[in-house]
Amino acid sequence: MPFLSKDWRSPGDQWVRTKQGWEKLRLWRVKVFERLNENIFARLLRLATSELSCHEGIWKKHQPCIHYIKGISRERKVLTSLTEAFIHLDMTGAARDLRRFNYVKKMLELLLDHKLINMSGSSQKQIIAILEEMIDQVLKTENNVASMRVLLNSANNTLNEGKYHHIGSTCLWERHQENVGNMLARLNNFTITPRKDDGKAKFEDLPEDCVRQIFERLSDHCDIIHTGCTNKMNHRISSEMLLWKRLCFHHFTDKQILTFLPQEVDGDVDFINWQYIYHRCFKRFGQRETYADSLAICCNCDTIFWKSIGHPCVSEEDPVSQILSPEAFIKLFNL
């Protein structure tokens, strides 16, 4: 016999009307308290920057995490939804963090790839809210402009393709198209502010050793190539075989590298073109995804949390966690 309640959309839940539309009352409370904690934390930083212990105590009160429910039982009939995960994990706040920006961007790329039309209206609103937060952060910091343009174009194409076959109301879908169009217009009208000549050191003033150390910490080969086109010194450093050799061993396994390694090399690795091997491996196997911060799930209590913030596991055993890639995180919600 089917279970019927006062609201068939969410059994037993209460809804509240906001400026953005109808939202679940318990999730709306979480977002209100998150904004309240951020305002209090910012005010204390302005008033008493020396009282670090007070600041750390307030930050520890709010730890973005959510308990993931794998399946239903007789006592609990509700699964963990993607909307709840976005709110409890503070995805909009993660978009403002430089360490988590690429992780959130990759996750949105996967969701916008033919998955948005099958998602609920509340999840769609959360994704648009994250995009708005990301565009504000990009325009403020003037970083990741090109990748943000690709993400917005993907969102615009997905909204146009799913205009006549999507979940949710037509008005909500048109509102999404309008918001994404406004974000694209803001990004197209944006120009990077040129740095004023303030007499301080610039990138071209750095010695070769510093530039070489910076290049070795760039995970994307496109950034190395583009920077190498600026002047002769950068071009010489970006063409060093040792740099490309380290990139090869960072992104690919030994078996993958041996696929394109010349067979006639007998221990003499000085004449190997590592840049050529890197590009061949990149076309065949793709690039290894590296994130400064990522989500993880506790193996004891099934709680999802950010790795850098940590999770106070209540289990008496040693807390063991598993890193969640953006693909693995989305698969948890059967998308």
Automatic annotation (TrEMBL):
GO terms for cellular component: cytoplasm; nucleus; SCF ubiquitin ligase complex. Pfam families: F-box-like. Keywords: Nucleus, Ubl conjugation pathway. Pathway: Protein modification; protein ubiquitination. InterPro entries: F-box-like_dom_sf (IPR036047), F-box_dom (IPR001810), FBX25/32 (IPR040394). Residues 203-250 form the F-box domain. GO terms for biological process: protein ubiquitination. The keyword Transport does not apply. Its main location: nucleus. The keyword Nucleotide-binding does not apply. It is found in: Nucleus. This is F-box domain-containing protein.
